[in-house]
Automatic annotation (TrEMBL):
Organism field: Macleaya cordata
InterPro entries, A to Z: SAM-dependent_MTases_sf
CDD domains: AdoMet_MTases
Annotated family: Belongs to the CFA/CMAS family.
GO MF annotations, alphabetized: methyltransferase activity
Pfam families registered for this protein in UniProt: CMAS
Lineage, highest ranks first: Eukaryota, Viridiplantae, Streptophyta, Embryophyta, Tracheophyta
Protein's UniProt name: Mycolic acid cyclopropane synthase
Keyword list, A-Z: Methyltransferase, S-adenosyl-L-methionine, Transferase
Keyword Transferase among record annotations: yes
Length: 360
């Protein structure tokens, strides 16, 4: 029996992915293609009136309450989530902050911008020496190490599901002579612990969740009853709330960078509808241009040491030169497309939100 041929549109998408992996699509062409994706997303999810847009947001938030806390764990690609720290240091800088920097002017470096954003987190969360701090989804420990160094009397706990990230942080603590850090290797959605904390940080993690109600309820159980605060950074669209899944057969972006449908893009108001266990104390918004510039700077850093990165991938994953080149190109495309998304409409569409909650 003959194998059924791919739909021509799907075949074109598969071919585009292959050409991107082989670096056969010029950067400017990728940028143009991404702008088309973004315009299609806006047209697809935008409603003709504010009343209908609000109704869509309410329906979306209601649907999240009926879902599992997260659905993507089974679909994660180890080559995307379990990355070598040496590569991350090249791309993000020494602090390995894997989220947006804060660019207060045109002259500062990406590493300086990362430190400024870490300082802003601490300022807005009212971090003080002597507090107990929990960082959920701590990555390579940029915030954990930042707080632990500045506030030596704080006990800082980080949670990551990556063994290589934990090992990196532990090694950094030895180099910096830090004895006030504990790293827990666990999936945050299934983690159980009795400890409670003065401050809880969630940076760039809630987008990987589905049921925000269950996630925030779980976090509230780790907050002390009195004077505890949760600081949450998330990315959002100013009006649209949607699952990051393919719109149609020609959508090459959703499903290429992350598993299709595994992530959520909330709207600006989406999280305000989940105050069952925590309540909003303050809400700030930052232009997406900060993250757009972060990704552009990351791209420059990749390109400056591209051969070294390919070698790192070969050694870390035990893969061929060809596969290492494809993975390097994946990260280049990741930076290009994200820069276009957060830079769209001068950073006024896809943006950064900071929310401060207390425990109910």
């Amino acid at each position: 029996m003959a194998t059924e041929a791919l739909n021509p549109k799907k075949e074109a998408v598969v071919d585009l992915w292959k050409r991107m992996e082989l670096e056969l699509v010029p950067d400017e062409e990728i940028r143009k293609l991404m702008k088309i994706v973004l315009e299609k997303r806006i047209n697809w999810d935008s409603k003709p009136s504010h009343h209908q847009q609000l109704a869509q947001t309410l329906d979306f938030t209601k649907s999240l309450r009926s879902m599992k806390m997260a659905t993507e764990i089974e679909t994660l690609d180890a080559k995307v989530y379990e990355t070598p720290s040496s590569f991350q240091q090249i791309m993000c800088g020494e602090s390995i902050k894997e989220s947006s920097g804060l660019f207060t002017d045109e002259t500062i470096s990406v590493e300086e911008a990362h430190i400024k954003m870490l300082d802003l987190y601490c300022e807005r969360a009212h971090v003080k020496d002597g507090q107990s701090i929990l960082d959920l989804g701590c990555g390579h420990g940029s915030l954990v190490l930042h707080v632990a160094q500045k506030h030596r009397n704080c006990n800082v706990t980080g949670v990551t599901n990556s063994l290589s990230q934990k090992e990196f942080i532990v090694e950094q603590c030895k180099k910096l002579h830090l004895s006030n850090v504990e790293i827990i290797l666990a999936d945050v959605t299934t983690l159980e612990m009795e400890a409670t904390f003065d401050r809880v940080f969630v940076i760039g993690l809630i987008e990987h969740m589905k049921n925000f109600e269950l996630f925030l309820r779980k976090i509230s159980e780790w907050m002390k009853q009195d004077d505890s605060l949760l600081f949450l950074e998330n990315y959002f669209h100013i009006n649209l709330a949607y699952h990051c899944e393919q719109i149609d057969e020609e959508d090459w972006y959703n499903g290429y960078i992350f598993p299709s449908g595994s992530m959520v893009m909330p709207s600006a108001s989406c999280l305000l509808y989940f105050q069952d266990d925590v309540s909003v104390v303050h809400h700030w918004i930052l232009s997406g241009s900060h993250f757009a510039r972060t990704f552009e700077e990351w791209l420059k850093r990749i390109d400056s040491k591209i051969d070294e990165i390919k070698g790192i991938f070969e050694s870390f994953y035990g893969i061929s030169k060809e596969e290492a080149a494809k993975l390097t190109n994946y990260w280049r495309v990741f930076c290009i497309t994200a820069a276009e998304m957060f830079g769209y409409n001068h950073g006024e569409e896809w943006m950064i939100s900071h929310l401060l909650f207390n425990k109910n």
